[in-house]
Structures are given as C-alpha cells and as structure tokens.
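Lecture 7, part B: from sequences to assemblies.

Below are the input chains for today's worked example.
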Amino acid sequence: MSFWLKILGSNAAVPAHSRNQTSQILKVNSHFFLIDCGEGTQHQLNKYGIRLSKIDHIFISHLHGDHYYGLIGLISTLHLYGRKKNLIIYGPPGLAEIITIQLKHSSTSLTYDIEIKEWKPGTSELIFENKILEVTTFPMDHRISCSGFLFKEKPLPRKINKELLPKEILPSQIGLLKSGKNVENAEGDIIFSNDELTIEPRPPVSYAYCSDTRFMDGIVPFVMGVTLIYHEATFMDDRADRAALTFHSTARQAATIAKKAGVGKLIIGHFSTRYKNLKPLLVEAKEVFENSYLGIEGSDFVLVD
Amino acid sequence: MSFWLKILGSNAAVPAHSRNQTSQILKVNSHFFLIDCGEGTQHQLNKYGIRLSKIDHIFISHLHGDHYYGLIGLISTLHLYGRKKNLIIYGPPGLAEIITIQLKHSSTSLTYDIEIKEWKPGTSELIFENKILEVTTFPMDHRISCSGFLFKEKPLPRKINKELLPKEILPSQIGLLKSGKNVENAEGDIIFSNDELTIEPRPPVSYAYCSDTRFMDGIVPFVMGVTLIYHEATFMDDRADRAALTFHSTARQAATIAKKAGVGKLIIGHFSTRYKNLKPLLVEAKEVFENSYLGIEGSDFVLVD
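Predicted structure of the full complex, as structure tokens:
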C-alpha cells in the first residue's frame, strides 16, 4: 500500500516565477489520480517521470482555464501514443461539450474511450469507489461551479498475526478473523479468538483537495480529521478583501480551515503572481496551523510509503 | 526596419525530447505576429523574454491540437493581465466556436476584444495588410483544412541620398523622389532627378510558413523566391510512405520545395518524436538544398536587422 501526492503546479491564474498552473497527482497503490490539469501539465508529468499512460482517472474542480486547459492536450497525447484503456474524467457540467467540440474540429476519433462524468454542483456525492478508496465531492464557494474532492481510504482489514496462527486454520477462517470476527464452532464456542490472532491495522488515510474557494466554514465538516488537506491560499491576509472579492482565500484562512477540521497536515498553493517569494505565506499559515507546507512544483507528500 | 523569426516549438504531435509543439514568432518592426500556438506557447514566450502584450495578431494554420491548444491559455492570460488592445486571430473555420465555448463556461467577459477571422480553406487570400506587410494564405495538403501563410514585405520606397539633397527642396518634392519619380517644373523640365538624388532600396523580404502538409508541388508558385521558408519535415525520406499516409513531409521533400521555389533559406521543423537526434534530417535536407537549418526552440532567423 502506498499513498502519496506530488504537486505539479502551484501558481494562480497564469504561469509565472517558474511556477505552473494547478495540477497534482495522487498515487494510491498502482492507481494514479490526476487532480486538475492546467496548461502544460503533460510537460510537468514528463519532467517528473510519471508515465501519462498510468493515469486512468482525472478530476477537474472547475472550468477556469488554469485548472483544465492542459486536459485536451493530455487527451490528445494519450491518443497519439495509441492508448487502449478507458479514461474516466470527473468534471463540472460543460466539460464534455468543450472536449467533444475540440475533437470534432480536429476530426479525431480517439484510440480509446473517454467517459466524462459530470458531477452535480453545489452538493456532495460519491463519484468514485474501488476496493480501497472512495472519492466524494464537496462544494467550494467560487465564482463558477467548483468542487473539492475527498480521497478517503477505506478501513483496512485487521492484520493477521502470522506468528501465532495455528497451522490447521482454514482460509475461510482467516477471512473471518480479518473482518474482525471470532471463529466459532457449531456450538458457538470460540475456537480462534480475533483478539489473540489479529492486530489492529493502521488507521485509513485521507486527502482533501480544496480548490479555488472563498473562506467558508461549511468546508470543515467535509474535511474533518483528514490526514492531509490542500487548501488554496491565493493571497496573504492583508488582502483578505481582495480574496473575498475574487472568490479566493488567504494563507491564514486556509490554515484556519485546517485547524478547525483538526487535520494532520496542510498544503497551501494557488499562489498569486504578486508573491515571488512564498515564505511569508508559509509563515502566515504556520501562525495558525503549525504543520503547514508550501505546495510548490515537485513537492512530495507521502502518507503511506 | 527589422524582420526576424524565432522558433518556439519544433516537435510534432506531442511534446518530447525537451521540444515543444509548434509555435513561432515573427517580428516585423514593432509588430509581433504569433504563428501557431501549441500547448505551452505562453511558457515559451516567457522563457525567451517576449512580452505577451506585444502580440496583436495570431495566425493558426489548422485545428490539430499541437498547433493551437496553447491559444486559449494565452487569451486568458492576456485577459488576466488586463489587456485593452484588440487581438486579431486568423484561423480555420471552427476556431471561433472552440474559443467562445470555453470563455462561456468560465463565465469570462474579456477585458479586450477578440476578432477571430476565419480564412477560407482550399484557396489563397489576402488576410492582413498594413503599410509595410501583406499576409496571404495558401492551401496545404493535410488531413483537415490547413493553410500556409506568406508574410511579404511591401516594396520599400527609394532611399534619399541625403548628402546630395539640395537645401531648397520641399517635403512634397522629397515624397515624389521616394516614390520613384523625378521632380519637374511647370514646363515639364526635370529640376530634381530621381536617378541622381535617390538610391535603390534593398529588396523586400518575405517569409513563407508551410505548416503540416504532404509533399505538394502546388506549394511552389506561392512561395517562389521567398527570402526564408519554413516547411515541415516530420520524417526522413526512408519513411516517405508513412509521411504520405499521415499527410506529412520528409526532410528531402521540404528541401525539394525550397529548391524548386528558389528560396533563400530553408528551416525544417515539426520533427517526429522518433528522432531524438535531428542531425540526420538536416543532412538529408542539405543534400537537396544546402542552405537548410533546423528550426529548434530558441533559434533566431534574422532577415533584416
């Protein structure tokens, strides 16, 4: 089991100061989830040695260009490389129309199938689930429909203590133990005790991605206690008015959400071009929430190694 | 007067080997003309220190993504920088729809006006003209509608030989001399002789951009005698079949067009990802047309300094 996040872009609105526009890649075991896809994201993936073909799921938070203009290029490149696997994209209403029209005008019939699943704005819904992970949306407060994404590992089965395991135990009985039950005989007597033969697994980890948003207390319940949160911090607090006006947040506000939600670690990003030096933003966040980090290009955040 | 070209991207289809997708910038005096705009073109302009705000005219050859996916990002960045000047884009039918739909879904009302002038496929027409330059289209042979662009300086006025100019000459009489005429008195006698007082100007320069195309003799008349030609050379000649099949050209074919048209200098570009080392393509072109160059990122071709 591995669970790590790499930042591919950290600048707001435009590329500047060698900072790209927003994109991140989350790896959970062998699955690569791309989160937002600003222009040049495929270049960043190449730069960091992440094979484009590994990505099967893409999550787009909203239709401002700095969060999705790189998507059509990535789709085209996968086609030109002869991809066969399906690609599933979760995005706001309108995304399918934008992609379809560009493929139409280039007379492109892709070598693979794309499924664009448009999530419902203004609410929270489960949009992805596999054996180990669930992804749910939750609403942001932005100028256009915008969603956060919560990537939540499912509770892990109890771990068998192999040293103590009797040789005669059957596979089906091991399954019972892993699910937290005792193994009983026909009379209801415990023959293999869960307490004795299993160990508590590590707690499941979770990652909350809070894309462009004004400060909003309503985010807190959705991200309560997550292991890692990313929250945009376009401005510093002396520009809180400007942040509110443009539907963005400050570093202090991002840290306030992290603190209220009792998260493990905070990443801030989506920095305004006005900040060439990002240290003051980090200092501001740390004043409220000590375990804060800058989400700059190439940074890795490993939750499970 | 200055007239130079800088290459911003040289790779075909996808970004690879640190080569970007197609884009070039042509500077004629104070005018910057952007020719094609693959993904990441705004990053390349930043890298080479060319201010985005300088660009007033953009020419798009066709709607394959490697030639235009960077356009919407550039349009957005100019908006975010608060541009006021008009931006005029010359592109194939369909481009306006693609741009409009993306601006609609981001609820963006640009700070400036865009005029998208869609040229007529399959023919040659004058699409731009100012005091010193004309731009005409000419058809390429590609899988979808695709156009080349000829940037042609207008004939320069004769230069006044200032050392010999009499003090009593009037401005209107200087104008007559510049236009190639003699200055005569009421009786029709020559009072200031053009031959004596003016010097032949340098010949006008011209640049022909031949975007994605199969080898086509029909290009030659449009580019006859140009100072500089760019012709795509996706493959080498041992893959001429593949080139024809995919509506592309080989280095030898690009050089053949240059030779037949008697041009001054040839740039080849739009290199297939299969060629990490580009020297063999240059050697192949030079076998047919000696004055050939690789159009790699950052290369400058100065026609008038």
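Note for the exam: The mean pLDDT of chain A is 96. Keep this in mind when comparing with the next example.
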